[in-house]
Amino acid sequence: MLLSNYANSSYENHDTAIWKRNNKRSINDVVSKNITLVLENLLKNYENSQLPTHGKGYPTVVQTNILIRSMGPVSELDMDYSMDCYFRQYWRDTRLSFLGPIRSLSLSIKMLERIWRPDTYFYNGKHSYVHTITVPNKLLRISQHGDILYSMRLTIKAKCPMELRNFPMDRQSCPLILGSYAYSNQQLVYQWQNSESVNFVPGMTLSQFDLISFPYRNFTFTRREGDFSVLQVSFNLQRHTGYFLIQVYVPCILIVVLSWVSFWIHREATSDRVGLGITTVLTLSTISLDSRTDLPKVRYATALDWFLLMSFFYCIATLLEFAGVHYFTKVGSGEIVIDDSEWEELIEEVGGDAFAARQLAVRRRSSARSTTNYSFTFPAASNNCSGENASQDTPEQPCAVRLTVERTTQTETRVPRWRQLLYCLAGDDRYRRQRQVEAGNRGHINSVSHIDRAARVMFPASFALLNLFYWMVYAFSNDDFAWSDNPINTLSH
């Protein structure tokens, strides 16, 4: 009896489970059949070439929002930028409204070919595409009231006209402009969905810039075909200068400072000073070419160009300074300068031995420089020591005698400074020869130059002042920067 009751109860439970499963399947089948019937009924007399508000006297409104996943790179060379985003559009098509327990329908993207959708395009787009891995990244959803959500994942490359006068301390405003290609604002109007229609994924950063702000707006754009409703968002960016400070500015400053070592090198070391100057100029040339690799060939000079030109100027000025030192103040290299007539006399004295003649000339010049004429004056300490009052019979008395030694030099005719400058500029060989002879006779040392001494102070001081002026100018120019929208005419062609 117990066994029969247990068997009957188990059969009843099994039948109940089968009934529930079949009932669930039947409900799903009914729902799916209902959805299929709903779609067939909605699309039965649907015309996908007509706007939802066709013939109603008011335009169709398309609301838009964007969620940006990543942004960059921003290219100065091509003047464009890229971004990866979710682009969503909302509009109402009452022809697709329906009744039933289902509030919204998620449809296959194949349905997009059977319903009307806005012909949105990017006015300043260069190359955009929809992601298709592993399937086309699109979403289509319809609510009971006919509200349609159309979302897709896009990668957009858009134009970004840049003003690079302050590069690399510049700020840029990169716009994204979208609207209808064929429908005027009498037929189709675009609107941002709400006050937060442009958003970014948390933690998104740009490698080259800081995102300062991203204002967006609606406006009407007039074309030859009529007036069109347009949406615009501007990404206001400020460039990071750390890379350029490390890779360009600091090396240029150090190279300029290195070129000043020439001022402490003896002017007789011609090859050393010229080699140092040429090396610094060539190094700056390499840095200049490398820094402009990713920049367009614009018609104006950027802030970086001005700094490189300033560095070039100081390195070349160092070379020219040594040229002036060498030409105007280096009158000899320490050797004895001998006239032809004097050389013939020396050769005759030593019997034709050139080396002996040179040694004899060196000894004579050395003795001539060390020869000193002395005059001794014995001033009287008292009347008894006076030469006038002393008699011959008076014996010599000891007295205090002060010995004065006077060195006499030969009086030379000095050439006025202005005439010396004219002689140097004209390259007068006679004057230069005379200076060499005078330097050899006086034993002047060529290693010390007043020009070098002045350059040791003037070059660093002026370079520091120019740097201060440079950084102040571009710092204030950034403070006065005003974001401005680029004319859409320059972006849509």
TrEMBL record:
Q: Where in the cell is it found?
A: Postsynaptic cell membrane
- Membrane topology qualifier: Multi-pass membrane protein
Does the keyword field hold Acetylation? no
The answer to whether UniProt assigns keyword ATP-binding to this entry is no
Q: Which residues form the Neurotransmitter-gated ion-channel ligand-binding domain?
A: 38-240
Keywords, ordered alphabetically: Cell membrane, Chloride, Chloride channel, Disulfide bond, Glycoprotein, Ion channel, Ion transport, Ligand-gated ion channel, Membrane, Postsynaptic cell membrane, Receptor, Signal, Synapse, Transmembrane, Transmembrane helix, Transport
Pfam assignment, any one = Neur_chan_memb
InterPro entries, per database record? GABAA/Glycine_rcpt, GABAAa_rcpt, Neur_chan_lig-bd, Neur_chan_lig-bd_sf, Neur_channel, Neuro-gated_channel_TM_sf, Neuro_actylchol_rec, Neurotrans-gated_channel_TM
Q: Where is the Neurotransmitter-gated ion-channel transmembrane domain?
A: 248-471
**Which parts pass through the membrane?**
243-265, 306-328, 457-477
Family statement drawn from the similarity comment of this UniProt entry? Belongs to the ligand-gated ion channel (TC 1.A.9) family.
Question: What is the protein named?
Answer: Gamma-aminobutyric acid receptor alpha-like isoform X2
UniProt source species: Galleria mellonella
